[in-house]
Amino acid sequence: MSVKILALDTSTENCSVALLIDDRIYSRSEVAPRDHTKKVLPMVDEVLKEADIQLNDLDALAFGRGPGSFTGVRIGIGIAQGLAFGADLPMIGVSTLKAMAQACYRVSGATDVVSAIDARMGEVYWGRFARQADGHWQEVDSEAVVAPQTLVDASSSDDKNWVSAGTGWQTYANELAALPYTVTAGEIEFPDAQDIVQLAKLEWEQGHTVSVEESSPVYLRDNVTWKKLPGRE
């Protein structure tokens, strides 16, 4: 099935855009923590020009729906909605945790991946995924925002060799080292649009799209607790 999908992601320090046309991917990616709003639209223009295609020629627009930086996720979905609305395109939201699992498969062929993004405040955005024969990723652990020690206490051993992805493994290396199963360090630190667009293609083939109005982010953390400074209670 011929398909043309544009994907973008600004949910973490990495800013990325990818265009999938059939089996070919045009992509741009740059770690630019404070420059997403400056970088992402020029990246969109670059991949469209490289592929010699217009936004209106696309079948869908995909985006990293989170979890990740609250501001970054909002920037990404806002820009994606604007582009999709202007070109009258359906949208596809893709998990950033699952996108990192897909990246591990792309880079090393890993089929059992555990993703952890540093969520600050002593927690990680967490998900464990096993790749299926059809290319989809099954959730072994449901996506959640959780303290590393809680993960350790609630986990049980298995005989798989998991591959790690994400910034949470560096931030909480000591705590996560106590997990009761084998984890091999992977190369993937951030989600990337070139992996998001591959997962979006699978969703497109199954008719899983939403309108601009129905597209929404996934923050996982619904309630943010602010610690007051001493003397300011």
Helical fraction equals 25-40%
Q: Order of strands side by side in the largest beta sheet?
A: 3-2-1-4-5
Counted by DSSP, the helix tally is: 7
The total number of structural domains is: 2
Low-confidence stretches: 223-233
- Strand-pairing-aware structural class: alpha/beta
Strand content: 25-35%
N-end to C-end Cα span: 60 Å
**Mean pLDDT figure:** 94
Could you say what the CATH topology of the largest domain is called?
Nucleotidyltransferase, domain 5
Largest sheet report: 5 strands, mixed
Radius of gyration over all CA atoms, rounded: 18 Å
Approximate shape: globular
Structural description of this entry:
It is a single chain. This protein has about 230 residues and is α/β, with parallel strands linked by helices. The chain has 2 domains: about 5-95 and about 190-205, Nucleotidyltransferase, domain 5, CATH 3.30.420; about 95-185, Nucleotidyltransferase, domain 5 (2-Layer Sandwich), CATH 3.30.420.40. Helices cover about 30% and strands about 30% of the residues. It contains 7 helices and 10 strands. It has helices at about 35-50, 70-85, 95-110, 150-155, 170, 175, 195-205, and strands at about 5-10, 15-20, 25-30, 60-65, 90-95, 110-120, 125-130, 135-145, 160-165, 180-185. The chain has a 5-stranded mixed β-sheet, with helices on both faces. It has a 5-stranded mixed β-sheet with strand order 8-7-6-9-10, sandwiched between helices. Strand 2 (about 15-20) and strand 3 form a beta hairpin. Helix 3 (about 95-110) packs across helix 7. Residues about 225-233 have low confidence and may be disordered.
